[in-house]
Design a protein that fits this description.
Radius of gyration: 17 Å
Structural class: mainly alpha
Number of strands: 0
Shape: flat
Number of helices: 7
Mean pLDDT: 81
Order of helices and strands: HHHHHHH
Distance between the termini: 39 Å
Helix content: 55-70%
Strand content: under 5%
Amino acid sequence: MRQLHVAQLDSVHRLGASSPAQLAEEVTYAKARATQVAAYALIREDPSPEEREAEAAAAVWLQLCDDALDRREDRLEGRQTLLTPCHRFSDAAEVLERHRLAAFAKLRGLRHLDPLRLEEYLFRWYVVASVGMTYLYLDYQVEHGALPAIRLRDAVPLAFKLVAEYRLGAAAGPIELPGTPPVGRRGGV
């Protein structure tokens, strides 16, 4: 728990608007690792190295999801994260999707897991990713003056349209919001 507390303090005190991206990445990964250690110590005593690696990748992605929800406030308050320098939705979406897809690939690489249970597990995280990505998109619309202020719950209807179209294995591919360029292609808000 001490590691988690220190990592949280680092993210508040060491990162400013002018902090280099490398420091933001280091602090993000440290927060994710500390959260992972604290959370998984409660769940399992001795995970394998592959499980630890997959859990670490998932923890980094979840930390980035948290950063996405706070992106505009972090920028206004002068805190640096991996997402605050992203001035376009497509850039932030690419960071999130790259980490999500890497985490999901590592989880799929755990061969001892039951494939159907794993797919159900990844579907749940896909729901989280869909809501987060939709909120991030709407937040960029607010930032660029295209929408009034929003709340997280405003993202849910559009996210659930994405989830309703979910097909087996879709969690392995990018999330594409209607009316936006696919992640990985430059352009868009």
